[in-house]
């Protein structure tokens, strides 16, 4: 069992200070007092130390080779051999010290934490419902309403106003409406637009505008707009009903979805498991049920660390 996220953040700060070379005797005494405040504080400190120890193992240099083998041509080979574990350690450090989604909330007009669903009414009367780990900016002027979706997913109920078109930008996606309802899902690479009411104009930087009507969806992949498809509302809009629905989806996509509902970064230590398929229906607010199903039905091993989930083949 790990400590809660607020105590982990405090434990990380103390750990960084104590290992920075700048800690005074007073700092060390204060850190010790903080740790002794409660069993939960002690648990947080132990969790952070556990991960720090793992990083040390990943970055550990190999034992010295026999003198006969220590010739100049092997130097580059040895450095390349250890580039991967050292890079893995660097990734783990970033995942630990930079909480998931932290950058998004710094400047965005509206943002949600993982697991949070929030509704917002804009000045024009439009209503947005944000899924977890979502961030966006909103601007309005005399002739234009505009949303910039940085990452995440939102349901848009756009108030009708023919004099002020409503624009949404998300990665390569460009969307224009005057009044309708639709969902935009942006995972940082691909974008999916799902229209439930009315008609939406979709385009990318190169294609001609494409009209997407009710019960239709379209994807931007590789920065290009793809052909229209029938809307699979049961899966694409499942989060609005409090569900997570997976139909033979790659494990990598499943974990991307789970990062919206839990404060836990995912790192694949074995890339061969990324394409394993997952099928099932789960409660949106119970990501642990998904993890249990993955462990029970797929040849994977999940290692839970504070703020991290390491995935490898079992």
UniProtKB/TrEMBL annotation:
- Superkingdom of the source? Bacteria
Protein FecR C-terminal domain span: 243-301
Tell me the ranges covered by the FecR N-terminal domain, including all copies: 10-51
Residue ranges constituting the FecR protein domain according to the UniProt record: 110-201
Bilayer-crossing regions: 80-98
Q: Does the keyword Membrane apply?
A: yes
Record key words, sorted: Membrane, Transmembrane, Transmembrane helix
**Which Pfam families would you find in this protein's record?**
DUF4880 (PF16220), FecR (PF04773), FecR_C (PF16344)
Q: What name does this protein carry?
A: FecR domain-containing protein
